Every structure is written in structure tokens, then in C-alpha cells.
Predict the structure.
Amino acid sequence: MQAKWVVLLMAAALFESFATAQDKIYWTDSGRDKKHIARANLDGGDVEVIVSGLQTPHGLALDMLGEKVYWADSGTDMIYRANLDGSSPEELLHVQPITDEDVTLRGLALDLHAGKMYWADHTDYGHTGLIRKANLDGSAVEVVVQTSWPDDLALDIAGGRMYWNDFANNRIRRCNLDGTGLETIISPTYSPYGLALNVRDGKIYYNDKSLDTGKRRIMRADLDGSNIEPLITDGLNLVRGMALDLPNNKMYWGDFGDDKLSCANLDGSQIEELVTSGLQTPTRIALTPEPATLGMLALGGLAMLRRRRR
């Protein structure tokens, strides 16, 4: 009974704390004179800069349980976090290179259940790339897997796997969260950027360049790389960040080349431009979850307690 009340109290606290943070899109901008983290409503309204004075922000992730935003800055080789409104920023970790070349930080993802953050980094020329992990406070750094030029990074916590695009070798790869079971699931795919997982429907979203038309396109495939299908094949320049809003069946992306944020249905239909001014180089985006998602998490926690008592 006590555990049940703990879950209920946690769920109530989550609903209360997310009341002011729901329905937001966050992004990093690493333009010439716009090096910051900003956020807006999911319809593109109420744009606000929450963290300024950065150097080259890339990786971006949200911890809604701890009410924190995490980011990686290639200009300082640091991983940081702050409150969701950008207040109280703190340095967590100075990422050390493993060769004589400088390190370049890229994708960032969180495993809140295990209290871990994962990130991708590589040397200046992409010869050596790593995916590493650490505690959420930056302690206990470990190398998970070595790969060349990892860029975006996404975690399937329930499935126990991580996914990333290998830009240097034009492929998308995955492995277990402990680094074992490394495999290439999509190859060749030319100039892959952007990556997002729809674990609910067993799909991976990414973007690449068509060898036939030379145009960027947003693609979808099964999690094992099969059943590849193009969703959006025109009107894109260079998509870097991608994120999914599963409760509303929407996907969001930032266009690094056209300096705008857009969204569409998960099947690529009904494209909408959300933020079209004030951006210079949007690189990564992240979405806050909706209350419906939190309710499912709370119910899932109660179901888990019931199963354990049987």
C-alpha cells in the first residue's frame, strides 16, 4: 500500500510541475550571433531565449522529472544543465578527447530510469567517434561503443537499444545500451542527419539526401531498418534536429539551411512552418511531454506494482 501511495504522490507532483512547462518545443541555435537555447509553444508562438552566451550548442535533452534542460557545447567541450526556464545553469562535465585532436560534441540523450546521460562525440575529422555515458550529475564517465562520426543519438529504453547516424560512412547503426550487439540497420543512406524514434509504432525517423534528385528528404523505416519509405521529399534544405509528439501524431524538425522550425503529421502530410524568423542555425530540438503521457506513466507504474505483488 505504501508503494502505491508513493507512485500516486509522484504522479500528482509531476502533473503540478509540468503545468507550466507542457506543450513546448526547445531548440539550440549556433548561428553567427545567435548562440543560445530557445523555446516556444508547439504552434511556434511565444518564442523566448532561455540560455544565451553559448559557443556551439548541439546536443539537447529534457529531464521532465528533474525539471531540467541538458545541452552539450562543442565550443567549450562541456555538458551543462539548467532549469527548464534556463535559470541556475551549471557545468556538469568537461568531455576529454581520447586522441590529440579536439573533441566535437553532438547528440545527447537521457535514460532517466537508470539516472544516466548518453552523448556522441568525435574528433575534428571524424576519424574516432565515441558514444559515452555518465551519471546525470556528470560523474562516472564510461565509453559505451566506438564508432566513426556519430551525430544524432536516440534511446529505446524499453527495448534496451540506442540508435545513431554515422555521417562519415553514410549509415544508421544501433547497439544495446551496454554497447554490445553493434549492427548497421540502414546502409547506404547518403549524408544522414536527424534521428527520432517512434517506439510505440516500431519506427525510426531520419533524413538524408536522395542520390537521384540531390534533395534532402525525411524518411521512415522499421526499427530494424526494413520497410524504408520517403515521407517528405521536397522543400527541405538541411534538417538537423528531429523530435516526435506521439500523443498528437506529429513530427517536428529544425532546418539548418533555411533557418526555420516546421512540423507535419507522422506520415509527412500537412506540413506547417512554425518559426520562420529570428533563427540562424537551429541544430537540435526537444519536446516536452503532454499530461496524457504522464498519466500513462503513472498508470504503468501502478500496473507494475500489481504485477510484482502477484
Q: What stands out?
A: The chain has two helices and 24 strands.
